[in-house]
């Protein structure tokens, strides 16, 4: 019968525990050196479209972004969770958000009413570093924005309200 003395078992256990400890520490150091994923990166921002009346996300809508650098416009699609991402335009200091148009092709038909005013100018650096929450003109509801997020308040248009720009 092959028996290992207690001292050998203890040494083997200690070496195993030290190896596990070294592996855990090295993986923790590697994880802390990697950048933490945030809502956006320096090149991309997240637009949160929120229903001003209910506080719930508005989904499957378009938001128009107008850049100050060269008056270029971008159309940002806000998906199923009320979030859309947009690429930053190099050299821009500000951008303006406006309601997008309806999906069925008529460029003069608005998809929703803006509760953030007719237009809001957003400073790019503030949006990247602190986030930006537009003032809610429809009621006093507010939320917090993470760095890289822009909160845009909106309200669905009732069927009896004209949706022309």
Describe this structure in words.
There is one protein chain. By secondary structure, the protein is α+β, with helices and mostly antiparallel strands. The chain contains two helices and nine strands; from the N terminus they run H-E-E-E-E-E-E-E-H-E-E. Strand 2 and strand 3 form a beta hairpin. Residues 31-41 have low confidence and may be disordered.
SS strand fraction: 25-35%
Question: What distance lies between the first and last C-alpha atoms, to the nearest angstrom?
Answer: 91 Å
Can you summarize the main beta sheet?
A: 5 strands, mixed
Helix-strand sequence: HEEEEEEEHEE
CATH superfamily of the largest domain: Carboxypeptidase-like, regulatory domain
How much helix is in the residues? Answer: 10-25%
Q: What is the rounded Rg?
A: 26 Å
> Helical element count?
2
CATH class of the largest domain: Mainly Beta
Mean pLDDT rating: 77
Characteristic terms for this protein:
165 residues; alpha+beta; Immunoglobulin-like; 2 domains; 5-stranded mixed sheet; 4-stranded antiparallel sheet; 2 helices; 21% helix
Short description:
This protein has 165 residues and is an alpha+beta fold.
Chart the SSEs and their pairings.
Blueprint: H1 6-33, E1 44-51, E2 61-67, E3 73-78, E4 83-87, E5 94-99, E6 112-114, E7 120-123, H2 124-129, E8 132-133, E9 149-156
Parallel strand pairs: 1-9, 8-9
Antiparallel strand pairs: 1-4, 2-3, 2-5, 5-7, 6-9
């Amino acid at each position: 019968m092959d028996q290992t003395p207690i001292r050998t078992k203890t040494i083997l256990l200690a070496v195993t525990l030290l190896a596990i400890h070294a592996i855990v520490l090295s993986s923790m150091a590697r994880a802390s050196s990697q950048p933490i994923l945030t809502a956006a990166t320096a090149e991309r921002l997240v637009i949160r479209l929120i229903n001003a009346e209910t506080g719930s996300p508005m989904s499957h809508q378009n938001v128009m972004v107008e850049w100050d650098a060269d008056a270029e416009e971008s159309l940002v699609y806000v998906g199923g969770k009320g979030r859309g991402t947009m690429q930053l335009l190099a050299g821009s200091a500000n951008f303006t958000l406006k309601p997008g148009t309806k999906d069925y092709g008529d460029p003069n038909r608005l998809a929703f009413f803006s509760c953030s005013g007719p237009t809001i100018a957003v400073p790019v650096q503030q949006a990247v570093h602190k986030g930006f929450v537009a003032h809610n003109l429809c009621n006093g509801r507010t939320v917090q924005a993470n760095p890289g997020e822009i909160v845009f308040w909106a309200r669905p248009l009732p069927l009896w309200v004209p949706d022309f720009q």
